[in-house]
Amino acid sequence: MAFAGDVHFEGRTKARLNVAPPQQALGPISKQLADADLSMVNLETAITDRGAPQAKAFTFRAPARSLKVLQDSGVDMVSLANNHAVDFGQVGLTDSLAAKASSPIPVVGLGKDAEEAYAPHVAEVKGVKVAVLAASQVDEETNKNWRAGAGKPGIASALDEAALLDAVARAKAQAPVVLVYLHWGQETNPCPTAAQTALARKLASAGVTAVVGTHAHTLLGSGMLDSTYVAYGFGNFLWYNSSSAGGTETGVTTLTITAGKVTGEEFTPAQINGQGVPVPHTGAQAAAAVKRRDGLRGCTGLAPVGR
């Protein structure tokens, strides 16, 4: 299974919607996503051409065809449980839900109500059922105003830990492998917050196979928390500007899962170029980037995979 970070089609990356062939929208690193049995990113945007922007500093949106572009680029699934999924209000949310309903790839973390928003996508990979769900722990306008509830559309919230843990229990009843993709952390902080580590422990205790996520605009450390793999932050991936501190280092994390446990981790490092596209490192640059990324584990309390 391959994971990468935050993606959207704004500013300099808007042109990636029209790249030919479409398989190159994410650049050459698409190969790492396409080669995995299942791959996933966070789509950091409302999926709409309509609606009024919400009263916040940054608002992002993309047309529904962005989902097909991501599919062509090797992405098998996206999360919309983030702080930009409802940047264009109720009209944009209605469009995003319609885009989800007609999407060529599964979309998790957003729904017409809480039941749908927290529901996992269950896939069969080489004879093994895998359940993937998503939620946001970012405490801001989207989580306050557009949290899914009973009869209320919106995002799945990780701030409602009881709802998230209940969703995990229901996912485990459907599949032996459960992965949770979270939007969490503090922007530009390369170390996990207390809220992240506390939630990771609860999800590990609930038997989650892997907990991964984004939001900080910079890479964070990863490794094993007992028998659960945790990646605290994948950073930006296809990104509209270069102003985020630490935001140009990125990559694809590929996990090997054997008998329901993460037994291998491979990181393909990349640098976001002037067009906002992740370009894989090679040679000595790649080795140095992997070493920097592995060094981020020091403030996480996690153990290396395989030890």
Automatic annotation (TrEMBL):
Domain (Capsule synthesis protein CapA): residue spans on this chain: 1-241
Native organism taxonomy: Bacteria, Bacillati, Actinomycetota, Actinomycetes, Kitasatosporales
Gene3D superfamilies membership: 3.60.21.10
CDD domains reported for this sequence: MPP_CapA
Similarity annotation: Belongs to the CapA family.
Name this polypeptide is given: CapA family protein
InterPro entries per UniProt: Capsule_synth_CapA, CW_Biosynth-Accessory, Metallo-depent_PP-like
Signal peptide: none
Species for this entry: Kitasatospora terrestris
